[in-house]
């Protein structure tokens, strides 16, 4: 029997120890406003209002049942990555949130699959934390799409990705730490334009930076939000590679050669966008995701996938569960 799997959801624990020593004066903490609502604080600044569906498995499972979702991948909320701190500090922070994540999913281990976070700025520490987490029950890892000015083609990240492949651990890449400016600090523009651009850029790093040429093609890696703006601009990238390959990347082959090397989720909210995604990377490389429980996510989960008439029954079944089952090692 096939399962319906949501590859892209997040958690926030109900509370955690004081992180000032490791994260500095803007350390995150949770200001509880009621039994079911809280505010994520960054020092004295309000960051995001959340509800108890971030930490309450019972509510999460009820929403899954309502939307017809059998299994969720539950990943960290990227604001807690702390890639700007030392490796030692970020390793302690990662361990705290990884252990709390296991408590959140504990009530339903057959339906809630935890992905860990790692101190990606320190390759050795990241590999150690990944190994510890996999031994403790995490099934994959979520990473941010960059570390300051270092993208996914930096040597340390490539080493970490190779370690994920060696352990057969799936990797979910989520955009984070978007640029800020007066033009981007209104209308949630960082989320509406910055996130798609960040994901697009990091996909380029893997392709044009030659990472896919240097890594095992069995690496399991998935990008959030439909891969950002990548699919729409593949033609432009392809043209640039052919016309100015002297300056556009170090990849051995044109960008379209690598479309089978990564997956994306389906959080694109529009049938026309989903069609482009399927036409570009293939139905076997798209997995249903929702970005639950945040307001910019999709509810009901998989609504666009289910209503898209251009999908064949086999393609729809692959997107809503089959592809993710293989990605997670469940099939």
Distance between the termini: 10 Å
Strand order of the largest sheet: 1-5-6-7-8-9-10-11
Give the overall form: globular
Number of strands: 11
Secondary structure: helix percent? 25-40%
Low-confidence stretches: none
Structural class: alpha/beta
Structural domain tally: 1
Descriptive labels:
lyase; alpha/beta; hydrolase activity; 15% strand; 8-stranded parallel beta sheet; TIM Barrel; 331 residues; single chain
Task: Describe the structure concisely for a colleague.
Helix content is 39%, strand content 15%. It is α/β, with parallel strands linked by helices and 331 residues long.
Describe the structure.
The protein is of the alpha/beta class and 331 residues long. The protein has a single domain (5-13, 55-328), classed as Metal-dependent hydrolases (TIM Barrel), CATH 3.20.20.140. The protein has helices at 20-23, 57-67, 87-105, 123-136, 155-167, 189-208, 211-214, 230-243, 271-281, 303-307, 313-327, and strands at residues 5-10, 28-32, 37-42, 45-51, 71-75, 112-116, 140-144, 171-174, 221-223, 263-265, 286-287. The strands form 2 sheets. The protein has an 8-stranded parallel β-sheet with strand order 1-5-6-7-8-9-10-11. Strands 2-3-4 form a 3-stranded antiparallel β-sheet, with no helix packed on it. A hairpin with a 4-residue loop joins strand 2 (28-32) and strand 3 (37-42). It starts with a strand and ends with a helix. The mean pLDDT is 96. Belongs to the metallo-dependent hydrolases superfamily. ACMSD family.
């Amino acid at each position: 029997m096939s399962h319906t799997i949501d590859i892209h959801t997040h958690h926030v624990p109900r509370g955690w120890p004081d992180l000032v020593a490791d994260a500095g004066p803007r350390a995150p903490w949770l200001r509880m406003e009621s039994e079911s609502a809280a505010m994520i604080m960054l020092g004295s600044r309000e960051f995001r209002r959340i509800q108890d569906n971030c930490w309450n498995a019972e509510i999460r499972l009820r929403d899954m049942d309502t939307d017809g979702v059998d299994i969720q991948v539950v990943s960290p909320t990227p604001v807690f990555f702390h890639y700007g701190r030392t490796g030692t500090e970020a390793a302690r922070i990662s361990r705290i949130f990884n252990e709390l994540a296991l408590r959140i999913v504990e009530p339903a281990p057959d339906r809630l699959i935890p992905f860990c976070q790692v101190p990606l700025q320190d390759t050795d520490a990241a590999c150690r934390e990944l190994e510890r987490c996999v031994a403790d029950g995490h099934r994959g890892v979520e990473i941010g799409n960059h570390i300051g000015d270092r993208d996914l083609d930096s040597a340390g990240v490539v080493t970490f990705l190779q370690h994920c492949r060696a352990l057969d651990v799936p990797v979910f890449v989520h955009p984070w730490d978007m640029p800020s400016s007066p033009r981007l600090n209104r209308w949630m523009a960082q989320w509406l334009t910055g996130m798609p651009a960040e994901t697009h850029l990091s996909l380029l790093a893997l392709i044009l930076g030659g990472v896919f040429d240097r890594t095992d093609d069995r690496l399991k890696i998935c990008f959030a939000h439909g891969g950002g703006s990548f699919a729409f601009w593949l033609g432009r990238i392809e043209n640039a590679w052919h016309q100015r390959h002297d300056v556009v990347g170090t990849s051995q082959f044109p960008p379209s050669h690598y479309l089978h090397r990564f997956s994306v989720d389906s959080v694109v909210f529009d049938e026309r966008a989903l069609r482009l995604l399927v036409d570009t990377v293939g139905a076997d490389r798209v997995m249903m995701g929702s970005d639950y429980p945040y307001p910019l996510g999709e509810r009901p989960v998989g609504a666009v996938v289910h209503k898209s008439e251009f999908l064949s029954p086999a393609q729809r079944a692959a997107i809503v569960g089959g592809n993710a089952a293989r990605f997670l090692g469940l099939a």
